[in-house]
Amino acid sequence: MEFTLLGAAAIAGGAAYLMLWWEARHGNAARCTGNLWEIGVVSAVAGIFIGRIIAMLVDGTNPIAHPADIILVRSGVSTAGASIGAAAVFLWQSRKEPVYTADGLSAAALAGLAGWSAGCLVRGTCLGTASDLPWALSQAGSTVTRHPVGIYGAVLFGIAALAIAWWKAYRRPPAGMPASLAVVAAAAIRLAIEPFRPSLSGGPVWFYSASLLIGIVGIVWFGVVVPRRAR
Amino acid sequence: MWGGQPAAPHSFPHILLLTVCPVDGTAEYAVVVSKLVITTLVFALIAAACSSAAPVEGVDPPAPITSEEMQNLLADSTEPIVLNVWASWCTPCRSEAPLLSKAAAQFEDDVRFVGLDVRDTPNGAAAFIAEFYLDAPIEHYADQPGSIPTDLGGNRGVPLTFFYRPGGELSYLHIGVIDERTLVLQIDELVNG
Q: Does residue A140 belong to the interface with chain B, where contact is any CB pair within 8 Å?
């Protein structure tokens, strides 16, 4: 049972790799300095590590005095800490061409999130708050039907990933736009499904809102300001 | 920008070798990262070795309980019960304790939280309660032989978390470290199921 997280991580990694593999055949990452797969995996692993340490600190556990606790990611990972940590490690790795590298990874990152959400089928954590909708599901032995919130996330992230991949392959968007749109999509999807997820605190809505705002600023910057300056 | 140009080659991931910069990446870079990781591990080990359990003052060790008494406690309860099996020597128990403490405080009016300390020393148990559960509305009991979880349908591993409906009917058993989603979902099943 403890290895189900690894199963979910494998599905996430597989989905991201498949997306990169497909995109590589459609001209993705032509200007990136570095291997997108490696940059993505290192950023994700570092993000989880940082997010776990922050969650430990928030809970009052000293990670230096209890280093073995760090690997117990099931006990909690700070979403905001992990995301910011992953972004920082990504920027450090791709410092020569951050915008093109971010664009190159944008669809794969969303595909990875779709895979991670679909990993709820392995982890047994697909169900959310109670619902009477026709597609609501119940756990074995229960009469309470619930939103299959993990499936919602997998479908929405998957659609966003495919849309951005198609856009990059066939419409040649301005640099920075795919990455900005991916941030907007990820934040909007998490904001939309968070009310259906069981949680003690309601989830880091503030972080999703801030990410949405940053993504919109990115879209305006790369879609309006930069092209106007170029003219 | 995207079409018409050669794709970047996808090589086998070198993450395990710490060579994360394959295009202009260098062995020198990998050596620096390796040194950083080793130095961090050494400091962490020294810090862990130097740390010691704080003296326990004003915290009683959990009261001993037999298997029969525990089964009666479950059967007689008019509230749902979350029964968490823990031990002070169990690292995963330490990592899930803050979550259980928060959940116990949040669902205090709906659910009764019970902790069962197994195969532990009284001083170790008291130190663990002092560190994590001092203000949490959780009642703790001690099972020195560690046989109660097995009698209840679990196993000898820790941590375990049992979810009981009023009257002692088992709703769900979680083996291993519990995460927030599972904990909240199963409590919701107890309260609304």
A: no
**CA distance readout (Å), A117 to A152, B117, B189:** 8, 35, 22
Pairing, β B160-164 against β B170-175: antiparallel
- Nearest chain B residue (CA) to A4: B176
**CB of B99 less than 8 A from some CB of A:** yes
Q: Does A74 touch chain B (CB under 8 A)?
A: yes
Give the DSSP letter of residue B8: P
Of A20-24, A151-155, A166-170, which has the strongest mean pLDDT?
Answer: A151-155
B-chain CB neighbours of A26 within 8 Å are 2-3
Instruction: Domain ranges for chain B, please list them.
Output: 15-50, 63-192
Among A45, A56, A59, pick the best mutation site for testing chain B contact (most B Cβ within 10 A).
A59
Q: Contact, B167 vs B187, CB < 8 A? A: no
Domain locations along chain A: 106-230
Fold of B63-192: Glutaredoxin (3.40.30)
Q: Is the pLDDT of residue B36 over 80?
A: no
Return the number of CB contacts < 8 Å for A and B: 154
Q: Tell me: the pLDDT tens digits for A175-206?
A: 999 999 999 999 999 999 999 999 998 899 99
Q: Which of residues 112-171 of B touch A (CB under 8 A)?
A: 171
pLDDT for A47 equals 97
Alpha-carbon distance values, B11 to A20, A190, A206, B187 (Å): 12, 32, 38, 46
Interval A155-181: pLDDT, tens: 999 999 999 999 999 988 999 999 999
8 A C-beta contact, residue A222 and residue A146? no
Q: B170 in helix, strand or coil?
A: strand
Q: Cβ of B20 and A69 within 8 Å?
A: no
Please report which confidence band the pLDDT of residue A68 belongs to, taking 50, 70 and 90 as the band edges: confident
- Mean pLDDT over B8-33 rounds to 46
